[in-house]
Amino acid sequence: MLDPNALVIQILTAGPIFLFSLVFHEYAHAAVAYRLGDRLAAWTGRLTLDPRPHLDPVGSIFMPMAGIAVGWATSGVGFIFGWAKPVPVNPRDLRNASRDMAIIALAGPLANLFLLGVCAFLIRGLVASGVGPDDGLSVVLEMAAFGVYINGLLALFNMIPLPPLDGSKVLAFVLGPELGQKLLSFNPGLSLLFLMFLVFQGYLNKPLWMAVQLGEWLAGTSLVRFLI
Known about the structure:
With 228 residues, the protein is an all-alpha fold. Helix content is 68%, strand content 0%.
């Protein structure tokens, strides 16, 4: 029988981690754009860790809560999915537009991998100190384990080379101006349908498992016992 209290606990532990990970991802885009000469994100209030300018009601709240609910209903973790408002970038202010756009795009997934490492090393430290799933600090372990899972998912998903995801801008730079522009002009509606196909057919499960395996290697322990 499903326990509603377990759903509330998952929302309170996974929800804040997911929101912060989204905000940190977008902040990384804004910070790198600023360093490369583009001030648009700063002028529009996006060069901040304050979540309010970044969050999208549907993508940042409804969708991740739906994913958490699915995980609760299936007695697992679920596919916690969502998005924030994209950071505005003005390519004309960049010294090398195609290269710098790729660097700005790459900053978001790299920020998530950084958070994955932070969460993994936090788990390693707590476990080495004798903290377990049944101790008073178990909620910290659970939140850190969600941090590994969520940031692995965000890094992986955003590097899919389909517009408007970050991976498309990185691949566009690699392909060169002509092919890159064709990629970036790909219909975003078709991209969304293809992304949904990948998710619901489970094609992202193995890459996500590899990202979680990286987190477990860094943490020095299995994460499943902290999540379920």
